[in-house]
Amino acid sequence: MKTLPSTLTLGLRRGNIEIRQFMRQRESVVFTLLFPVMLMAIFGSVFKDTIAPGVTFSQYFVAGMIASGLINSGFQQLAIIIPMERDFGSLKRLRGTPMPVASYFIGKTILVLASMFVQLILLLAGGVLFFGVHLPTAPSKWLTFLWLIVLGTASSTALGIAFAAVPKSGRGASAVVSPVVIILQFFSGVFFIFTQLPFWMQQVAAIFPLKWLCQGMRSVFLPDTFASHEIAHSWETGKTALILVIWLVVGLALAIRTFKWERS
Amino acid sequence: MSVIEVANLRKSYPDTLAVDGINLSIAQGEIFALLGPNGAGKTTTVEILEGFRKRDSGKVSVLGMDPQVTGHDAREFRDRIGIVLQSTSDAGDLTVAETMHHFSGYYANPRDADEVINSVGLGEKSDSLIRTLSGGQRRRLDVGLGIIGSPELLFLDEPTTGFDPEARRSFWDLINSLRELGTTIVLTTHYLDEAEALADRVAVINKGKILEISTPANLGGRSTSLARVQWELNGQMQEEFTSEPTAVVTKLTSQFKGEIPKLIVSRPTLEDIYLEMIGAAGGAVE
After folding, report:
1. Average predicted confidence (pLDDT) for chain B
2. Cα(B183)–Cα(B198) distance, rounded to whole angstroms?
């Protein structure tokens, strides 16, 4: 008798099938991949002011949109898709097969990484070509970029799976999740300059990961002289990493505790 | 050899007692139907057998395993069973073949995906997106996904709800073909004719208890129950219940000197028996 395929093998196969399904859903492709680029194009064209020596609002905004990309492809996408799959009964059907739950999560993570990768390429290309964003040259900046993506995607994925327990139905998931993301984007200084937001808004935003991802992305894409314009007059990279790790742990713990295969 | 053994199974939810001391023994190769009104405890019982729900008390053995196992044992358990749920309706952005091949990869000893697609009658739809399939075709795909892992035991939960009569007949042929492979099948259904056409034995469940387990022909003393003879006399239908319908008909033949007007000789259908059992037990009949 042959043995069951390994969790990792099945996870990779899940990833493959997830991406295939994703690409065939036009709404999800448009919503997840093109919407951030369109937003960037609109905001980047409207606000062209210089906000500090050598820094335009477009550049500031592009950094924020790249950070948002991590939230869109992980948190937002999963917190909407998973309740729908639960409503359709596809989760329960999977539950009845020998595929382990870990393989399902691996598949979802691969989907997030793939859509995040495409989104990043589009945002970076758009930013460089049209909005005067300069790609960093220092290897240390790319290193920061890399760990921001790894930690950002990981915590965003875990929190997306955890938050998928909140919407009561698949149909209503988008209405529950999207406002959370949009409000978070306003509070975290994606659409406005963070230091110009009211103090209480800054305080609320500082609890959540997006504010720190935005600040981290600014440290990668804006000149180091801009650090003095941040709240703490520094990029606070250590603190950023710490907060992302805390959210990753919280997200994982919640995801494991709250994940439901079927509608209750 | 019995594939399923259940002794004194109990399960309650915060506001209801769903399963109230059920005993079952289902043999290998048997097609076993669970009948009962909505809320009778059918689905809860089946979901405990499938490993979807935890029981409160009682003994359950399915294929020699406890369905409540976790971790790697749970994978082994699910490798040996097939589950066709009541309704699965995902967005259907994959083709029939993609889905079948993907699911076959979950199991240790899967059947050949293309062969299964043909056996459930979807050969011509192999490269169609699932969302383009009709309800009946989707249900056939569900069954295909249920048997792709070459299960020893298959659960079918109300498989033909919403089918037209023709689709139901051809679905029954499909299930009967699985019988020939020696697959044990546990079926829940609302349709009495379905139970009669497919099941070797049926159990009637009401309010969490089993009222009777028997063959469809013998349920509720059906095979020994009185026959009903009906005929017309002076524009009025007459009827007589008898254990000797032939004698009654012979008597009527001589009375009418030939053809008996509007003659009907019948025995209770499975449905008559079922409704009587549920009604006597004070159950809600839909």
Report:
1. 89
2. 13
Mutation choice for B interface testing from A1, A4, A22 by most B CBs within 10 A: A4
DSSP conformation class of B65:
B
Within a 10 A sphere around the Cβ of B114, how many other Cβ atoms?
Answer: 14
Chain A residues whose beta carbon lies within 8 Å of the beta carbon of residue B88: 88-90, 92-93
Residue B104: closest C-alpha in chain A: A97
- The class level of CATH for B2-219 reads alpha beta
Characterize the bridge pairing of strands B153-157 and B184-189: parallel
pLDDT tens sequence across B94-133: 999 999 999 999 999 999 999 999 988 899 999 999 999 9
Q: Which residues of chain B lie closer than 8 angstroms to A93, CB-CB?
A: 83, 85, 88, 145
CA separation for the pair A242, A257 (Å, rounded): 23
- Residue whose token pair is 């079948």: B100
CA-based R_g, chain B, Å: 22
Tell me the pLDDT tens digit for each residue of A19-33. 999 999 887 788 777
CB nearest B93 (choices: A24, A99, A100): A24
User: Which residues sit opposite A50 in a β-bridge?
Assistant: A56
Which of A2, A20, A24 lies at the smallest CB-CB distance from B108?
A: A2
> Order of strands, edge to edge, in the sheet holding B81-84?
B81-84, B153-157, B184-189, B31-35, B201-206, B209-214
DSSP secondary structure string for all residues of B184-196: EEEEEES-HHHHH
Distance of CA A227 to the CA centre of its chain: 23
* Contact at CB, A1 and B88, closer than 8 angstroms: no
B107: nearest CA in chain A? A4
- Count of other CB atoms within 10 angstroms of residue B251: 13
- Tens digit of pLDDT for each residue in A170-223? 888 988 998 999 999 999 988 888 888 899 999 898 899 999 999 999 999 988
C-alpha to C-alpha distances, B55 to A13, B44, B60, B210, B234, nearest whole angstrom:
33, 9, 9, 17, 61
For residue B102, the model assigns a pLDDT of: 96
Q: Are the Cβ atoms of A92 and B88 closer than 8 angstroms?
A: yes
Q: What residue spans define the domains of chain B?
A: 2-219, 226-266
Of B50, B88, B108, the CB nearest to A89: B88
Question: Residues in chain A whose beta carbon is closer than 8 A to a beta carbon of chain B?
Answer: 1-5, 10, 13, 17, 20-21, 24-25, 84-85, 88-90, 92-93, 95-100, 262
